[in-house]
Amino acid sequence: MSSTLLEVTRASHEEVERLERLVVKDLQTEPATNKDRLHQSHRVRNMIEQIIDTTHKLVDIYEDKDGARKDEIAALGGQTATGTNVFSAFYDRLKEIREYHRRHPAARVVIDASDDYEQLLIEEPQIEFSGEEGSGRYLDLHELFNEYYNSKFGARIEYTAYLDVFSQPQKIPRKAKSTRPYREYLQKLLEYLIYFFERTEPLQDLDRIFSKVTSEFEEEWTIGKVEGWENNSQENGSAPQNHTVIDLNSYSTVEELTIEGPDKLKEALGALGLKTGGTIQQRAERFFLTKHTPLEKLDRKHFAKGSRKPEQNGVMPAPQVGDDVKEIALMEAKIRKLCDLLDETIVRTKENVEKKQALTYEEMEAEREEDDVQAESESDEEDQQIYNPLKLPMGWDGKPIPYWLYKLHGLGQEFKCEICGNHSYWGRRAYERHFKEWRHQHGMRCLGIPNTKNFNEITSIEEAKQLWERIQEKQGLNKWRPDLEEEYEDQEGNIYNKKTYTDLQRQGLI
């Protein structure tokens, strides 16, 4: 028995409602790990897309462009070509239902299909990440870094420094941005950031974000306040007015034009779509042709390969150059916005790179195995025994600290202090700090020795006693006598010891 249009409508509404409840139920569960969070976000995104598709189908049904829904409603009311007959329509429909069940006696009505929908909550979508991306925790910009490092617009910097500057394309000199390599590099960078953002933040509406970025960019571009492109646009969308434009009205001969220099002439020729090669004399001659001859009348041989010759209506190629520049500036604005949204990920990436630089291959392998073990155990119950094969100390979160941190602080080195009752201290930092802690101070008081800086690094009781005896002997021989050695000065600048000064003061002589 084929479903009627009204039944399809009812089933579609039911599906939308079920999916909405599943979305709420899934979001009420707090994910335990980053991997679980990604799976949850992608599950919710998939259900939202199903809701959108089903809603579009419902909109088409309600618009009823072919009139099928209207005819079906009329048929239910008994309206036929011969007139209105409710009973005839009812019995025809009853006959159709009985005939269907007679042909399909095993058919049954599905009362509750919630089990099928509940399976969506345990689905684990497949999300592809490279080994450097760490399941979406870090960025993998090595390929783009190599392109930046070997380009003319880039700089010879390390990868960690690149992670600080790649999000600031506005700081690249404007002269270097007009090249094709920079445009291709910018496109690749934007594509990667979009791809990474869609995988790690599937619930974000990237189209809406870019729509807002574009609208703000258009306003700033109109008034010439785009960051990195200030005063580089006009309201009519013409070519950018920059320092490379040469006013030919100021020059009467080619020789005078050569004063501008080869670089400035090259940029001016490139802005017009003309060839930029040759000596400074040839460049000046080629550019000087445009003073009295319109571009559309120049010989084709003067134009660079791949550039379009101006049309006969006098349209200059400069607006096309302006459109290219505007497109580059817009890509930069989108990259800056994505970097703001991925700020925490960029910081984590830099920290991860710096951490790896301090590790050996064996340590990285040990840490990778530890991360795998922790990733598997994070989703288990809290009271489950933590797997710690390397016997690492526990951190503030009740889990073993990273292996690189264990090696950095030398926590595998044991120091014992006899004064503290043979208590063990792990790591140089804890050992140095314990001399000021209560346990060591209590031990020194029990020995009758003051806990001063002289006794730092002394952990043996016998050594502490011997040092204290030597200090006492030295103080006995060189004991300071304040009545004889403490100095006083009168109003005239005379110096006396304490005893003499006191006697003279009593006599009223000073």
Automatic annotation (TrEMBL):
Region (Disordered): 358-384
Limits of the Matrin-type domain: 415-446
GO biological process: mRNA splicing, via spliceosome
Biased composition (Acidic residues): 362-384
Keywords: Metal-binding, mRNA processing, mRNA splicing, Nucleus, Phosphoprotein, Zinc, Zinc-finger
GO cellular component: spliceosomal complex
Chief location bin: nucleus
Location relative to the cell: Nucleus
Gene Ontology molecular-function annotations: RNA binding; zinc ion binding
Record carries keyword Zinc: yes
Pfam families: SDE2_2C, SF3A3, SF3a60_bindingd, SF3a60_Prp9_C
PANTHER family (UniProt xref): SPLICING FACTOR 3A SUBUNIT 3 (PTHR12786:SF2), SPLICING FACTOR SF3A-RELATED (PTHR12786)
Similarity comment: family membership: Belongs to the SF3A3 family.
Identification of the protein by name: Splicing factor 3A subunit 3
